[in-house]
Amino acid sequence: MIRTTAKKIYIALIFVFLYAPIATLMVLSFNASRTRAKWGGFTTKWYFSLFENREIMQALWNTLLIAFISSFIAVIIGTVACIAINNMPKRSRAVLMGVTNIPMLNADIVTGISLMLLFISLGFKFGLGTILLAHITFNIPYVILCVMPRMKQISPSTFEAALDLGASPVRAFFKVVFPDIMPGVLSGFLMAFTMSLDDFIITHFTKGAGVDTLSTKIYTEVKKGIKPEMYALSTIIFITVLLLLFLVNKAPKEKS
Amino acid sequence: MKNSKSSQRLLSSPYIAWAVIFIIVPLCMVFYYGLTDKTGAFTFENIAAIMSAEHAKALWLSLGLSLISTVICFFIAYPLAMILANMNVNQHSFIVLIFILPMWMNFLLRTLAWQTLLEKTGVINNVLSFLHLPSLNIINTPYAIVLGMVYNFLPFMVLPLYNSLVKIDPNVINAAKDLGANNVQTFFKITFPLSIPGIISGITMVFIPALTTFVISNLLGGSKILLIGNVIEESFTQAGNWHLGSGLSIVLMIFIIVNMVASAIFDKDGEGSAL
């Protein structure tokens, strides 16, 4: 009994540690004073002025756009790569998986500057396009990581059976293989989307002047002081995701 | 799915092309810039620059702080991972709660929030003074940076540990107990050795980002404390000296490669038990 209580307290302490800053930000979003340092009374005005702040709205739009497109493309390339890797001879498979691990194990700052050097030497114009290419690059490994275990579990004979019964390879893939790997593909997409959304370092090196995502916008605001609208926006995003997760977890239970 | 060789090639080529252009070539470019000077002549100067007093100090400080953070993360995460592995929690919701959900609140804002919590008149000190405890003045010191590192990278330690612990067959542990081992012996002879792959990938996932960060030191360390990440970032964005920045990145990559080799040795599946 004492042991289980101690365990629960330990878990609770870690959750407090992980969520204390999040709670702080939520409280700050209702702070009437413009500075973080003092409490100026309760207000909801930042939640309204937020939508009139064109820069923040633009940054939000850029962030969501990049996160969505980059994870979508990463899911396609990553899933196709998983099919190929799964059928590869052991050696080339090990090499390719090793290369896949590089962006995950390498430091973000090195990935960021290496891509920046590449884009400079290719003469690319820095902007949304370069951020997008960088995000696809670091998202693909997360997709492969999520899809690969699923891919290994399915038996190749179901696919072959579909072919024998006259399905074209593409049709056989979508009818037989894809439903089985779907959960992996979905969690790969979610993971990639989250990583893209939360990334600062790689975006910092691959963005052009005047193009901002929420992360880079916040970073430039750090010295001047963060606008309270930013806290309000993060609170809205966080609560939305929390509610979505809650609904997603609730839904299947009601069905069954 | 044994297809013909040509369709096999067709499927793998997009990703291989992508990986070569956006992973391999960029890394080669870092080496190219790091090993040449502004005229394009070969030089070791940019790498040797790590020996200069200012850079060496930044590197040692980074190594020290990231080692301390990794050790702290390990000792916080291991008991947590053990508790969770024995609790039959829903793995998916646990990962979401500890790892995914916090990321939807921007990482810079979350780190900045620690300023509000740690300040002289901040939340934590108000609580401490209410309890008549001495105040905590760690903002803008290396301690705050360590706290920021532990806060940001703790989930990266918990997940691989949890994954390796949850895989351990309970029969192995029961067998050890049947053979007369007590809890401590079972832990050190069975559980701990079997969790080593998780430990190694946890250490990698915490140590590398902590060693190379420039954001956490910027946000929580004031502007006085320079880590090696700050030096590299400034040489790219402010000084415009790509050659120096690339040279110092090569030095960082040596640590990264050592770490990768170590994890490859311990993680024989080659799949990375990271997540």
How would you describe what is shown here?
Chain A is an all-alpha fold and 256 residues long. Chain A has a domain of 167 residues: Orthogonal Bundle (MetI-like fold). Chain A is globular. In chain B, helix 7 runs antiparallel to helix 10. Chain B has 275 residues and is mainly α. In chain B, 45% of the residues are buried. Chain B has a single domain, classed as MetI-like fold, CATH 1.10.3720. Chain B has 13 helices and no strands.
What is the strand and helix layout of this fold?
The complex is a heterodimer of chains A (256) and B (275).
Chain A: H1 2-28, H2 45-49, H3 54-86, H4 90-105, H5 108-122, H6 128-153, H7 156-164, H8 169-198, H9 201-206, H10 214-224, H11 228-255
Chain B: H1 5-34, H2 45-48, H3 53-85, H4 91-100, H5 107-118, H6 123-130, H7 142-166, H8 170-178, H9 183-194, H10 196-212, H11 215-220, H12 228-237, H13 242-266
Short note summarizing the structure:
The complex is a heterodimer of chains A (256) and B (275). With 256 residues, chain A is mostly helical. Helix content of chain A is 80%, strand content 0%.
Per DSSP, what share of the residues of chain A sits in E-state strands of 2 or more residues? under 5%
Would you identify the CATH architecture of the domain at 60-226 in chain A? Orthogonal Bundle
Q: At the fourth CATH level, what is the homologous superfamily of the domain at 60-226 in chain A?
A: MetI-like
Number of domains of chain B: 1
CATH fold assignment of chain B: MetI-like fold
Tell me the structural class of chain A.
mainly alpha
Low-confidence stretches of chain B: 270-275
Helix/strand class of chain B = mainly alpha
SS field, number of helical segments of chain B: 13
User: Number of DSSP strands of chain B?
Assistant: 0
Order of helices and strands of chain A: HHHHHHHHHHH
Pick out the low-confidence regions of chain A.
Answer: none
Question: How would you describe the shape of chain B?
Answer: globular
Which architecture of chain B does the CATH hierarchy give at level 2? Orthogonal Bundle
Shape of chain A: globular
At CATH level 3, the topology of the domain at 60-226 in chain A is MetI-like fold
Approximate helicity band of chain A: over 70%
